[in-house]
Amino acid sequence: MTTVADVVAAQADQWLDQLVEWLRIPSQSGDPALAGEVRRSAEWLAAALRSAGFPTVELWETPGLPSVYAEWPADDPDAPVALVYAHHDVQPVEPLEQWVRPPYEPRVEGDRLYARGVADDKGHVAMHLLGLRAHLEAGGRSAPAVTLKLLVEGEEESGSPHFPALLAAQRERLACDVVVVSDTGMWAEDVPSTVIGLRGMLYLHLDLVARDVDLHSGSFGGAVLNPATAVARILGRLHDDDGRVAVPGFYDGVVDPSDEERALIASLPFDEQEWLANAHSRVASGEAGWTTLERVWCRPTAEVNGFWGGHVGAGSKTIVPREAHAHVSFRIVAGQEPAKVREAVEAWLADCAPSGAQLSLEWEGDGVRACSTSLDAPALQALHRAMETAFGVPVRVTREGGSGPEADIQEALGVPLVYLGATLPDAGCHAPNENAHIPTLLKGAQSAAHLWDELAALGAETVRREHA
Amino acid sequence: MTTVADVVAAQADQWLDQLVEWLRIPSQSGDPALAGEVRRSAEWLAAALRSAGFPTVELWETPGLPSVYAEWPADDPDAPVALVYAHHDVQPVEPLEQWVRPPYEPRVEGDRLYARGVADDKGHVAMHLLGLRAHLEAGGRSAPAVTLKLLVEGEEESGSPHFPALLAAQRERLACDVVVVSDTGMWAEDVPSTVIGLRGMLYLHLDLVARDVDLHSGSFGGAVLNPATAVARILGRLHDDDGRVAVPGFYDGVVDPSDEERALIASLPFDEQEWLANAHSRVASGEAGWTTLERVWCRPTAEVNGFWGGHVGAGSKTIVPREAHAHVSFRIVAGQEPAKVREAVEAWLADCAPSGAQLSLEWEGDGVRACSTSLDAPALQALHRAMETAFGVPVRVTREGGSGPEADIQEALGVPLVYLGATLPDAGCHAPNENAHIPTLLKGAQSAAHLWDELAALGAETVRREHA
Fold it and tell me: Residues in domain Peptidase M20 dimerisation (chains A, B) (predicted)?
């Protein structure tokens, strides 16, 4: 009997050649000059999905760049419906001089395939193509065991500006029992893991304008408002001495990780010195009472992403600045409502702001909610079983500190999200020399092949459940 | 009998033509491309001083741009020696498009003469030339009543980088009983005044570097030091809630203005609304317990002249910045030692600085002491009598909040400084459309003419006294 592992092993070389072809297309959504390449990438993928057997393949247009949608119904009309989310656009490549190999000339070296987009996120789409083939061939099927839908976005690396509208417009066609997000990583090559939470985010631009000109600090200093000082006083009060965000009401509703999850986090093979080296930092710091991983995964934060005012750069200038500015972002966690956090921050700022200057606040959009998956969600358990079959070792859980369009998906579709991703921590996502670890990607493909069987065995109603 | 006023009136037109010629020379010391023009300005002045009758006229070279020195001994070898300080270099002219008239094509309109440098400071040098002529002609003298020395600097608008060394090298030739600084202004056209104090200054560049790269605020935010937050916390603690500088020891030694001086300041015709309009500010603010004029004249301050870190400008970037920076300057007053203030600030910063980041402090030079003249200094009283003769109304005292090379002069020569300046508040110094009010400048010339007589009448020993 041919197994999933057999098919994956037999097809690996040909599959890799196909992926390399796709990786040659510089589908950078952030560069308007490369919009045509993003479209070419979408068309390449649509053709690949058609030759893989998907009966329905469409380019979904947006006011920006196109997504690719594909659908392959199960033979059983009551089979669960799984929607895979990934993206085909890639990050910019600057600084180009730091790439050891040109980013769009993919090269295999040892176990790794190097190219922009191979980890984030074209490799994951390819992983599903190979996984589906193994699922069909090893199972002797002409259709997958679940109804499979694929949504591969074209603007993820540009902040998904048109994605919520697309989700809203296509909600009925995207209806499903579970979403499988394939745009994340694993703890380590020998420690397969899935993600069960992402933080949400709000991003604030703050401007404090005291006047229309800079003043001479000799002639006026000491008797007029200094907006740089005022903004420093605001930002300086953003945290208390324990590293907690000092905005009243900020923590309202926060759902803390369960004792079970904290224990799982604590059990991960974590080397703080290695993490610090990775963070180019000498010391860990942050909110008292939480470990480093808990701080980045489970705790809401306020970060000054940038500030400026008055004379910047070398040299000296004796001025009282006219105005000062800051970018501040808030990561939020399960239980925090973006709108309420925004209200709390605005009320606090109204309290902190000095009189005699104009404080203007501009928020980026409505903010993004946090995403979370229950440890006992049946779909998560099914994913872990599928991965354990492929990897042969227990699968762990992690979270990610960042935020993504997953929150929009969860909100639009209202079903559990699970994360099947095969990127390793040293994959160089958003950085030079991006790479994928081929054996891990192949085990990811095997996991996908098994996952469709595991989900089919549960039945649609169970798959949809948040809790066991 | 010909009076000082007669001579000034008779010579005014010719004198103005001569000044206009000088003002056509763009002697901007800040622009290396115009170094030749600064030299041409020095040579023009040297020639003018020679034709005015100064027996000794020299260009004093520095590693930068030349100063002009002139000396005219009194007939009486025991007469007081007065040293006039001014400068012949000018500010840049940008933004050029805001000049109604080209800055180097001087034009008389109504009572005003418009040109770069006419107020700051060539007009004052010319004022002394005219004053000296009136002094000689009205007094029927072949030499001034005091031994007159003139030092006209060429790099004042560039921070006088070589001036302290020049003072040290020429200390013996500059020896005098009083310095007459002519580089300041008057309260108003109808309120002649002299300056009795300047604040000193220290300028600090502060850099806090946490790492060599910016970090993703999703992946690392909350668990690593944010240097922008840390710098904001430092700057935010620079003042207490009463607007006092919170650095322990900062106020050590501060000499408060006497009750007499506070009363004199309070009696000035001061319109706070007008001052605020001038400051482009909506509200006065600053240290509790002091008036606006006291805050800018008599109180030490800490001002954030600029800060920056992380993502600056439009758009958003989700980073934890690698480093953050600030320029902070401290104005100091009589009784404060720059070196001790520096020590206090450094000790405080060592206390505030977070661990795990590199705090670097760079001070601009050694700092500048404050300058002050006693209300009862005989030379000041002499100046007031001279001005009252010229203006016909009582003369008031003011201070200036800024700092200048005067402190170096006072330290090098150890004699009283008095300030005879005729610039009005709307003169546009360091700004477009710089101008001089000609009648005030002519009264300034008369004041100078009388001053030499007043000082001669006191005798050298009295002129040197700090107190009556």
Answer: 196-354
For chain B, the structural domain boundaries read 4-198+370-463, 200-254+300-363
Please name the residue of chain A whose CA is at the shortest distance from the CA of residue B299.
A222
Query: Which of A215, A239, A307 best tests the B interface by mutation, with the highest count of B CBs <10 A?
Result: A307
- Contacting residues for B166 by C-beta, under 8 A, at least 6 apart: B60, B62, B67
Structure tokens at B369: 């002491």
Q: What is the C-alpha radius of gyration for chain A, rounded to an integer number of angstroms?
A: 24
CA dihedral B45, B46, B51, B52 (to 10 degrees): 70
Tell me the pairing of strands A200-209 and B81-87: unpaired
Query: 1.10.3720.10, 3.20.20.140, 3.40.630.10, 3.40.50.720: which CATH number matches B4-198+370-463?
Result: 3.40.630.10
Give how far Cα A115 sits from Cα of A107, A438, B61, Å.
Answer: 7, 12, 63
Q: Is there a contact between A448 and A136 (Cβ–Cβ < 8 Å)?
A: no
Structure tokens at A34: 């490369």
* Cβ-Cβ contacts under 8 Å, A210 against chain B: 281-282
From the list B229, B306, B312, which residue is nearest A321 (CB)? B306
Confirm whether the ipTM is greater than 0.95: no
B24 vs chain A: nearest CA distance in angstroms? 27
pLDDT tens, residue by residue, B49-75: 999 999 999 999 999 999 999 999 999
Angstrom distance (rounded) from CA A154 to CA A67 = 5
**A380 Cβ contact list (under 8 Å, min separation 6):** A194, A196, A373, A374, A416, A418
A89 forms beta bridges with none
What are the pLDDT digits (tens) for B314-365?
A: 988 889 999 999 999 999 999 999 999 999 999 999 999 999 999 999 999 8
Among B207, B200, B150, B196, residue whose Cα is nearest residue B173: B150
Q: Which residues pair with A86 in a beta bridge?
A: A152
Q: Record the tokens describing residue A51, joined without a space.
A: 């030759």
Q: Which of B156, B226, B358 to mutate to test the interface with A (most CBs of A within 10 A)?
A: B226
The encoded tokens of residue A28 equal: 């950078």
Task: Summarize pLDDT for A67-82 with one digit per residue, the tens.
Answer: 999 999 999 999 999 9
Chain A residues near residue B364 by CB distance under 8 angstroms: 316
CA atoms within 13 A on the CB side of A16: 21
Q: How far is residue B122's CA from residue B427's CA, in Å, rounded to a whole number?
A: 13
In this structure, which CATH number among 3.40.50.720, 3.30.70.360, 3.10.129.10, 3.40.50.2000 belongs to the domain B200-254+300-363? 3.30.70.360
Cβ contacts of A309 on chain B, cutoff 8 Å:
304, 306-308
- Which pairs with CB-CB distance under 8 Å and at least 24 residues apart come from A36-43? A38/A65, A38/A66, A38/A88, A38/A89, A38/A154, A39/A65, A39/A66, A41/A88, A41/A89, A41/A154, A42/A66, A42/A67, A42/A68, A42/A88, A42/A152, A42/A154
Q: Which residue has the tokens 């600029």?
A: B306
**Residue of B223, B281, B319 lying closest to A305 (CB–CB):** B319
Which residue type is seen at B134? A
Which fold is adopted by the domain A203-254+300-363? Alpha-Beta Plaits (3.30.70)
B202: β partners: B330
Q: How many CB atoms lie within 10 A of CB A326?
A: 27
